[in-house]
Prior knowledge:
- The protein is an alpha+beta fold.
- It is built from 4 helices and 6 strands, in the order H-E-E-E-H-E-E-E-H-H.
- It has one domain: PRC-barrel domain (SH3 type barrels, Roll).
- It has a 6-stranded mixed beta sheet.
Amino acid sequence: MRLLDDIINKEIVDSQGNMIGKVKDMEINTSSYKIESIIVTGSTSKIKKGKKEEDMIPFEEVGSIGDKIILREGINDIKDLFDIY
C-alpha cells in the first residue's frame, strides 16, 4: 500500500482529464486498514454547487494512482456520488 505522504496533495482528474481537486486526506477503515474514501479539496465548483470546501470520493472510483490520481469515470458520471457523502 502506498504511504499517505505519497498520496496527500496529489491532483485528482477524471477519466476525461478534467481536474477535480487535490487529495487533502483519506478515510481509512481501522479494522481492515483499507482506504474507504479520498477527501478532496478545491472541488466545489466542479463537483456540485454548494458551500463545502471539500468532498469525499469513494476509493473504488479510483482507476489508477501515478503522478496524478485518475478516476474511473468522468465528472458528469460521478456527480451523484457526492450527494451521498
